[in-house]
Amino acid sequence: MNPYDLARGLHILAVIAWMAGLLFLPRLYAYDAEQNAKPEPLRSEMQALLRLWQSRLLRIIVNPAMILAWGFGLWLIHIDVSARGAAFLAEPWMVAKLVGVFLLSGWHGFLAAQRKKIAAGTSKYSGKFWRMTNEVPFVLAIVMVLSVTTEWTFG
């Protein structure tokens, strides 16, 4: 096994875990927001459970997976730069991938900040908002995966 294949495999596994968490977390937020229409004490009991799940999902899966995905991704870049030089970093497909990574990381930060607001009861977003934005990570993943696997260029 060569280092590139190891880095690529570990990167893919980390991204799968990161994506799974980013796809599930907004769903938990939607369920939480929808509890506001329910009567007490059922509402507060369910919200407490959902908020525990949200916190654990971020702390145990999403945050470590993002760190690992970034780490293995940087390792891949290092291997590629060593083998073929840094010029590939300016290729359109790689620029699209890197922009996607930064957007996905920004979405992750937004979700993490919203968890704190939800826990404090100050979030302004509805269940409908969370359901509508639930697929943001997947749309970004489509662009990034197709960019890397096809290595498309202009002209």
What does this structure look like?
It is built from five helices and no strands. With 155 residues, it is mainly alpha-helical. Helix 3 runs antiparallel to helix 5. It is elongated and about 60 Å long.
Essential attributes:
155 residues; 81% helix; mainly alpha
- As a whole number of angstroms, the C-alpha radius of gyration is 18 Å
Main sheet characteristics: none
What distance lies between the first and last C-alpha atoms, to the nearest angstrom? 35 Å
Number of strands: 0
Overall residue-averaged pLDDT value: 96
Strand portion: under 5%
Number of helices, where a helix is a run of at least 4 consecutive DSSP H or I residues: 5
The parts where pLDDT drops under 50 for at least 5 residues are none
Instruction: Give the overall shape, derived from the CA principal axes.
Output: elongated
Instruction: Determine the oligomeric state from the structure.
Output: single chain
Residue share in helices?
over 70%
Please write the string of helix (H) and strand (E) elements. Answer: HHHHH
Short description:
The protein has 155 residues and is mostly helical.
List the helices and strands and how they pair.
Blueprint: H1 3-34, H2 42-84, H3 92-120, H4 127-133, H5 136-150
